[in-house]
Amino acid sequence: MKINKIGAKSVLDSRKQKTIQVIVGTDKGDFKTSAPAGKSTGQYEVKSYAENLAGDIEFIKKIDVKEINIENFEDLNKIEKLVGKNIGGNSLFALEASLLKALAKENGKELYEFIIQTSSESSDSEDSKFAAKIKKTLKMPRPIGNTIGGGLHSKGKGGKKPDFQEFLFIANGKTFKESFEINNKAYSLAGKLLGFFKKRNDEGAFETDKTNEEVLEIMEKVKRDIHDKCNQEVDIGLDVASSSFYSDSRYLYKNISKELGRNDQIAYMSKIIKRYNMFYMEDPFEENDFRSFAELIYETKGRNCLVVGDDLTTTNPERFEKAIRMRSINAIIVKPNQIGSLLKVKQVIEIAKKNNIKTIISHRSGETMDNTIADLAVGFGCDFIKTGIYGKVREVKLKRLIAIEKKLRR
Fold it and tell me: Which residue, 45, 343, 377, 396, could crosslink 382 as a Cys pair with Cβ 3.0–4.6 Å?
């Protein structure tokens, strides 16, 4: 593929903070990707930028396009060798994604199609057979939507807020579009039960001064109403983000003024899973406590609950392998800019599939109108996509998935 130019500049994300956008120009056009930014970040994430945003932008702008020759997904290793440690995770993700978009166009494919094709064991790339194969093996992810927020993402009401960071709905529709509609319905019902609509946090989730359990009661009522009145199914999930309120070997709950040690936290998380029939529990323990994750899985076996690693694993193959050895998780969050390298993203997803670990590709709290993760979700065959529900930077990912599904189901 012939590249005419590579550029980079700063753009604003949904929090009005600067992030990077990378532009790759070919004879087929310009291909852009902007990187999101997280507020609740794990200590093992790669740095967003080598030194700072401006430095990464200048480095990318000085890349000699004559040094770049990529023809397939695996050729991204040439890019990673070329840039080395001169750019951070945000910049590497944006650069590699833009190159893949250009390469997909060069091959007459959508990004998700190109990823499926390059991940396929079959060498048969004849268009008609390839399209038929995609339709036969089509797997759309289930959407996970942040509905009510607490933790680092919310100011709450009068300074009081839930300690848990995200209260989630996970719709289970017959199609992705139906799941999208169910999650929106559940979101609206939850807002009515909270009693106000206008106050939302940086992920589009409702803010409240209620306790964790009071919010869970609302979530449970919405789940029942969706089932009883609409004959549709939606599950409940939590992103506890427990590292954000962990200090000196204690979990410090401010909303209800209590401190829990490791064993008490295990008991509390287990109780919540059982009491509310939780389907999804993300980061229930601090980011170094692989053992407690494993004990929670043991305590709740047979409950069909996903115990999810995010800060624990940070889309890092080495930490993920440790989690597998210790049987700490049965699902993993995949955030491309958390590791930067799309080669490692692919590696993590392949490891997950080999070990029967569910994959959740995820947005960040500071988002842009870029919808790349929608294509990555389909291309890599992820089980879930976590994007939020409310707000145009969230909806653009979901609507891209609806469009992909519509095209593949023709």
Answer: 377
